[in-house]
Design brief:
The chain is of the alpha/beta class. It has a domain at 127-331 and 373-391 and 473-513: Alpha/Beta hydrolase fold, catalytic domain (Rossmann fold), CATH 3.40.50.1820. It is 25% helix and 14% strand. It has 13 helices and 13 strands. The chain has helices at 57-70, 86-93, 108-126, 147-150, 201-207, 251-258, 272-286, 301-315, 342-351, 380-385, 416-420, 422-431, 498-504, and strands at 10-11, 49-50, 158-167, 190-199, 210-216, 233-235, 248-250, 292-299, 328-334, 355-361, 398-402, 475-477, 483-485. Strands 3-4-5-8-9-10-11 form a 7-stranded mixed sheet, with helices on both faces. Helix 7 crosses helix 13. The protein is globular and about 70 Å long. The two termini are 44 Å apart.
Length: 513
């Protein structure tokens, strides 16, 4: 049983907030200050500690955080990877008590973990080739072994074990990007959709368990994809076996998750669902002698895929396959839409025990869709009356609402794409301390990242909008002086062991296409 966060002895050094602009680093995420640690001494300064009382965990936790935030009047420095102290309280950080006392005010470890998993979701955008003039459009820009290193995320301490692919369908067409040169396409229907990773031994020790991460990519068309939703609920079974036939989810989300095309083969041979289940099953088997967590994250449409796959992992019994203890399944969702009906919420939370924390901007319309008319905010009697209707949706899990208008760095009149942007959400998490509290960055996340793919920062910060781009659009000069598109290795295909693990799960004859 994890100890209470409020009973941990926490010490922070005196710090200064350094500007990351003007750094010689070529990668924005390498522009981080020294790591945030919980048990270090400061130069020529005595160690300052603050220990909360054991009598009132909620108020003492708030007092502890206040001391940490105001210590020496300086914000905390960013950490590299996992902050110390997580191993003792990881179950609480992953929703054991539904995040009670950790969000209002924001617990420093909670902030750290949310940003860490948010960076994994952001990696799905940064690694995606969405250039229609590339013959690799729709694939990952990096090979599997070099993925995290290529994005400057080696410090996270994870090994990517598998890439995930989704099969293009008409349900959510804006999720998929295809090359304008069909004769040179790497795949006619597949798109790279995310990855599965597992913590290495050193990170596992700091985390207090072996962590299996599933990270899902959202769309690169910002908020326009919401218009493509079928916007009607369909039973999750038989696509995902469920004893309650009243459990329903948005039809388009289910299609993206379960579609495949065995006639084309290759990357479309297995559905995204089969790929996730096979890899999680393999890793749970491999580390069955250890404590294991499955943490699923995603942004936008990727958030819907994260919720569906977490439900599926639990429904298929993978939580019970951990040899040492029950596998803990949790979701950190960023700016996600509603996924299913009230019965889906009850099945996910009460029967299956999946923990979901939803982070969203109050001004983001995606988090308010679908189910604009009847949803969890409606009176109980109306929800009951409309339960059988195909457009009655309910959000799942615990909600953490942010507000970009509280950040002094952002344009308060930013458009819908800005309000939905994941890097902006991570910036807001950095400075969030609770509702109606002053916005004050604590980890020192680089402001420039906000404008990586949008125009959200105030002009006074002198960061150009949408500054991230591939060097020369991947054109390289040959020895004879000609410019050609650079070649890349063939995208990583499905591992050979996939069918074996699907057979062990009883999915060998899954036939949806």
């Amino acid at each position: 049983m994890a100890t209470s966060i409020s009973n941990i002895l926490i010490a922070f050094p005196k710090t200064q907030q350094d500007s990351t602009f003007g750094s010689n680093s070529n990668h924005p995420k390498s522009q981080q200050a020294p790591p945030l640690t919980l048990t270090v001494t400061t130069k020529r300064k005595p160690l300052t500690t603050c220990k909360a009382s054991q009598t009132n965990s909620s108020s003492s936790l708030s007092s502890t955080i206040t001391q940490l935030e105001t210590q020496n009047g300086k914000p905390l420095k960013p950490h590299q990877g996992v902050a110390e102290g997580v191993a003792d309280v990881w179950l609480k950080l992953h929703g054991e008590d539904d995040w009670a006392g950790l969000l209002e005010p924001m617990d420093p470890l909670m902030r750290s973990e949310l940003i860490r998993y948010g960076e994994m979701a952001q990696a799905c955008y940064d690694g995606f080739d969405f250039d229609p003039y590339s013959k690799y459009c729709g694939s990952c820009r990096f090979s599997l072994p070099q993925f995290l290193e290529s994005l400057g995320l080696s410090h996270l301490g994870y090994t990517v074990t598998r890439y995930l692919y989704a099969t293009a369908n008409v349900s959510v067409p804006r999720l998929f990007k295809l090359s304008r040169w069909p004769d040179k396409m790497w795949s006619k229907r597949a798109n790279w959709a995310g990855f599965v990773a597992v913590s290495d031994d050193a990170t596992t020790q700091r985390l207090g368990r072996r962590d299996i991460v599933v990270a899902w990519r959202g769309t690169v068309t910002h908020v326009e994809w919401v218009a493509d939703l079928k916007n009607y609920l369909t039973p999750v079974s038989p696509d995902i076996p469920c004893p309650d036939k009243g459990v329903k989810v948005e039809a388009g989300f289910l299609d993206v998750y379960t579609d495949k095309d065995e006639t084309e083969g290759g990357y479309c041979k297995y559905s995204a669902r089969e790929q996730v289940l096979a890899e999680v099953k393999r890793l749970v088997d491999k580390y069955s002698h250890e404590d294991i967590s499955v943490t699923i994250t995603g942004h936008s449409l990727g958030s819907a895929m994260a919720t569906l796959s977490a439900y599926d992992v639990a429904e298929m019994g993978l939580r019970d396959m951990g040899g040492k203890s029950k596998v803990h399944v949790s979701v950190f969702s960023f700016s996600g839409p509603r996924v299913g009906n009230l019965r889906f919420k009850e099945r996910l939370e009460k029967q299956l025990g999946v923990k979901v924390l939803r982070v969203h901007n109050a001004h983001d319309m995606v988090a308010k869709s679908p189910g604009v008319l009847v949803n969890e905010t409606s009176p109980a009697w109306l929800l009951k009356v409309a339960e059988g209707f195909p457009w009655c949706y309910t959000h799942v899990g615990v909600d953490l609402e942010l507000d970009h208008k509280r950040s002094p760095y952002l344009n308060p009149d930013g458009d819908g794409a800005c309000a939905h942007n994941l890097e902006a959400h991570l910036h807001l998490l950095d400075g969030y301390h609770g509702k109606n509290r002053e916005f004050k960055p604590m980890i020192g996340r680089d402001l420039a990242l906000v404008n990586k793919d949008c125009d959200f920062l105030k002009d006074e910060h002198s960061v150009p909008p949408k500054w991230r781009q591939d060097h020369n659009k991947n054109m390289v000069r040959t020895e004879d002086g000609r410019w050609v598109l650079a070649e890349r290795p063939k995208p990583d295909d499905h591992p050979e062991y996939t069918q074996q693990h699907l057979t062990e799960l009883g999915l060998a004859n899954s036939s949806k296409s």
